[in-house]
Amino acid sequence: MQSLISRRPHLILAVLGTYFLLHLIVRLSIPNALELDEAEQILLSQWFAFGYNSQPPFYNWVQYGVTSLFGVSLFSLSILKCSMLFLSYVFYWLAARSTLKNGSLVVVATLGLLTVPQVVFEAQRDLTHSVATIFAGSLFLYGFFRTLKTPSAISYAIVGIATGIGVISKYNFALLPAAAFIAALIDTDFRKRLFDWRLILTIVLAIAIVLPHALWFLDHLDLAIDRTLHKMTGDESKGLALQVSTGLLRFVVAIIGIAGLSVVVLLSLFARSLPAMWRASSRWSRISGCILLIEIGAIALMILFAGVDNIADRWLTPLFLILPLYICMKAESAEVDTGVPLRASLAVSGVIMAVVLVVLAMRAYWGPLFGDYQRLNIPYDSFADTIRKDIGGEPGLIVGYDPHLEGNMRLQMPGTPVQSYFYPDFKPTFHLDAKHPVVFVWRDDKGKTPPAWPNEYFGDVLTENGLKQPETHVVTLPYIYGRPGDTYQFAYAVAYPYAASL
Question: Would the pTM count as exceeding 0.70?
Answer without folding.
Answer: yes
